[in-house]
Fold this protein.
Amino acid sequence: MASQMKISPRTFSKQKSSSKILKILKYVSLLLLVIFLSHVLISAMYPSSRSKSDSISDSHSDSGTPSWIFTNRHGEVINNTIENSRTDTFISKIRDSVNFLPYIDLSSSTSDTSGIWAFFNEQGESIENGKSWKGKTLLSRLRDSVTSIPRGDISTSSASSDSSSDHTTASEASLDQSGEEARNSDDAEMKRLMSRLRDSVTFLPLKDLRYADTAMEGNTWFMSSLNDTYEENEAEYLYFPSNKSNGRLLCINASVGRDGAENSYALAWPESLPESAKLMKGLTFISYTYYDFANLWHGLSAFAPFVGWSMKHGCAKPTRWSIFQQGSPQTKTGAWLQNIMQGSFGDIPIANFRESGDKPYCFEKALVMRHDLGHMALKKKHKVYKQIRCNARSFCDLNPEGKGQDLNEKGVPNIRLTLLMRRGTRAFKDPVAVTEIFRKECVKIEGCILKVAQSNDLSFCDQVKLLTYTDILASPHGAQLTNMIFMDKNSTVMEFYPKGWLKFAGLGQYCLQWLAMEAGMEHPEAWWETLDKLDCPTPQDKYRCWQFYKYGKVGHNETYFSEWARTILNKVKLRKQESSIDLDTCTC
């Protein structure tokens, strides 16, 4: 029987260890082979990546700092001269011309020209059907804008290899030999950039219907994308060109009169106005009101902040007016406001946008007021109305300082009481009885002079003269009370309301009390006819009840009127005896 060979445990352990070492070496060899093959593959795919990196590094080390050239979208050099600063300016302006528009344009919801606004997605594809307005393809046009690349790019760098060096030298020689062509190319590029800058002007709806429910809050719906400038004690405003507008002018296309949502505005640099635009030289005052320029109080409230701005800026006067009601351009105001404007700034025309056809007006300088007196401080309001009063008196050939020391033949101060009547709605039901009440009280006070006048029968200057010589103005609530601004400061106003107003008229019924405070007048109280019972046909409907009482006439209470008139007359008598006259000296 053959003998069996025995292997000791020690020998078996050694063989097992050797086998493990061989396996490890095998795996390491395979890993190194994979790394080697990967390196070869990468080198084959990107043969110039190393040289580009070296070239950029070399070019930076030569100059100490990186330098840049500009190319167009085809990679061609467009500027290698001292014109870089001009190109930088154009690129900056193109970048600043980007405007963000609402994804859904509510302005077309009620417009006859539905779909006039178009919007584009990231690829420049239309996302809303309709005609595109000039400038709405902003994204696709800006895609062609100038691109900047490092001078260290291999195509122009001083690479260490002979071939790169020869290529650079040839390029420089070519540029030197074609200097004239380069300049022509540069001029062409400037024109191209100018064209793109012009095309980037984007017109937005003048009346933004997204804010229809809050039209009188915040920035209002008029030019809603623009933020006002705030100065201490002054009304907020917009001014163009300015740092806020980045030097751009205001352009308005307002050929549609009936709906402000169909009109539009934009900002544009002076050197790149829209092709069809008309440049309006000089300073334009642009006034916006939610209400009506024919109404005395609303028109005056929209006009007054321009006087305040002018007083602060060297009594500046406009070349023209441009007025808007809810985004719709107006070509005239009421006659009363027109005289106020003319007295303050002269015979200034109102711009007529309808004459422009469908072409925008761009204003060399423009001041926009859209919040009436807004944040103006009370002391500044006193000064503004003092200036308006002074201007109106001068316009009507009266002493701008007012009536001065007004004494009768006995040296007693005259107390001039004016009953300013109106016809139609809110007139006194019995004007004769009311007149008699005030006459009886007036004769009891030495120096009292009563005048009764119908506001409808007076010219503008008649009203200015009458109120200049008035200490106490008594009148029903209405626009005629706006004439209080022509009285001397600290004069007194007595206001009367029909029944139902206190309950249904709301906050707006106090507007003339606000005016009295702003103009520096005394408006100690008012009288509301008592509403004994709710006699409107639909008492459950507050709005219909208001319409029922809104156009009513004013009754009277003889006892109350007598006591009130007596109290006011005595207070004014005492004031005129003790206080000096506040002379209205014109600032401008």
Notes: The CA atoms of residues 122 and 545 lie 54 Å apart. The first strand starts at residue 68 and ends at 71.
